[in-house]
Structures are given as C-alpha cells and as structure tokens.
Specification:
Shape: globular
Largest sheet: 4 strands, antiparallel
Radius of gyration: 14 Å
CATH class: Alpha Beta
Number of domains: 1
Strand content: 25-35%
Number of helices: 3
Distance between the termini: 15 Å
Number of strands: 4
CATH topology: Alpha-Beta Plaits
Strand order of the largest sheet: 2-3-1-4
Helix content: 25-40%
Length: 108
C-alpha cells in the first residue's frame, strides 16, 4: 500500500513577468526533479499578476523525518537553486510546513 502524505512543504517565490517563462522552465528542470525522486508527490503552481509572477512548489511527505533526510538538515531552511538570486525578485526567507488534515485526492 502506498504511503499517504502527512506533511506538505511549501515554497513560494516571485519573479518579474518578463522572466516568468524562463524561471518556470528553470524550476521544472532543476527544482522539481529532485523532489519527484524523493517526495510522495509534488506540485508546481504559477500565478501571473500584472507586476509579478508567483511560483509555489508544494511537496508531500510521509513525515518530518523523510523531509529532513531529503533536505539534509532543517526542513524549514530554504535551499535556493543556483540561479534563484538572478531570476527571482527576492530570495524567499522561509519554507512553510503544514500537517495535512484532509486529503480528498487520495480518497477517490
């Protein structure tokens, strides 16, 4: 039986609209693949606004220990990609960790 995710790790960053497509491609190529290999699931979300574009990456984990093993330390510490400083408006200072209370996707 597949493990059910109990914890979500959420990263948010924003870029200028003229760099959004470039950042999306970069994040898909370098940010998402390590998560696909280690997490139970991953989502990359994009919100285009007039002045900025927000990206949200949500990875799903069985527990904090598995997340800590992946991050090799503090799971709330931000691990920036090498080009984040160039492509993002500012470097995100934190990661959010949420316990999953309802997961309807896995009940269907």
């Amino acid at each position: 039986m597949a493990q059910k995710p109990a914890v979500a790790r959420i990263w948010r960053g924003r870029t200028r609209p003229d760099r959004a497509d470039e950042y999306e491609a970069y994040n898909r190529a370098y940010g998402v693949p390590p998560l696909e290999k280690a997490a139970l699931g991953v989502q990359l979300l994009r919100e285009d606004r007039e002045e900025e574009t927000w990206f949200t990456t949500i990875s799903y984990w069985a527990d904090i220990d598995s997340m800590t093993s992946f991050t090799k330390g503090d799971p709330v510490a931000v691990h920036h990609l090498p080009r984040d400083a160039e492509l993002l408006i500012e470097l995100p200072a934190r990661i959010q960790i949420h316990r999953i209370l309802v997961d309807l996707q896995h009940l269907r």
